Amino acid sequence: MPEQNNRDPEPDAPNGVGAPEQHTFIHRILRYVPSLLREEWVNIGVLVYDPITGDRRLRMIKEHAEFGRIRRVRPPADEEVLRCLRDHLESRLSAATPSIGNGGPIRSTLRNGQGNPIPVGTEWLQVLEKWDATLSNALQLAEPRATTADDINAETDRLYDELVTVASSSRTQTPPEARRTRPQMRNYMDQVFRQAGLWGRIQKNVPAAEYTLDADPFQIDYSYLRSDNLIRGFVQAISLTEKPDDVRILAPVAKRIQEMASQHKAGFGPEFLAVTNVDFDLESSDHRFFHKHLASHGVTSIPLDNFAVWVAKLRPMM
Question: How far apart are CA 62 and CA 83, in angstroms?
Fold first, then answer.
């Protein structure tokens, strides 16, 4: 069972001794521009990177509700093209980064305008200089802007919430019963993890393929590792009022991860939690099926209004 390295830092320390180091990050908003003449656009993603180390994060829209904004601006928008955009951009960036072998990073042969070698790990930044010319008119990168933060993952999520997410104008928490879409659920769950001081220990948008060892493109919302390093946990938000069939996707993924764990590490037990926007109505035949389907695949389920209590119980175990 391959273990995923936790790239996030420890939870924020108070200002003063032991306070996290601040870094300057550059971000560029990716915009969908259906009509240059009308000067209208929709923010569909954000690229955040460290200009010194080249460390980068790319987060783009992927939920059905998020694509609804594009349909309102331009009904015939090609959603499939936009859905594949992230992989396309990431492949272009990765292709510009030297591979890493047993002996460490391959020395870069690229040089800047002054003839000096470009630091290893930052080669992909040269791709940005060509993006404005090579991307179609419908896809544009906004001008680069700088921010200061201690964690690139948290900063990416913050910028995405504020500049891309529809409900970014309000930072207050709405009652759980008012949250229906997965983006709304994810925003709330992010806040709960942050307030519990666990944000730096939580992995986000985890590719299932890293644990199933297949080509499954499914991404699990959150993952964590208990302090005893014997339990790897996975958390997925499911909107029963919007996309209840997501239950059918999560259940077999959980089963495959459990099977791989049993084959590679005796005693290793992954655990799975499905957070639903409303509680299961066991008088509904559909809800009864979904509830039993998750349980039969080893997935525990709780409603969103119990999530903060669950996180409070998880905290001492991490």
Answer: 7
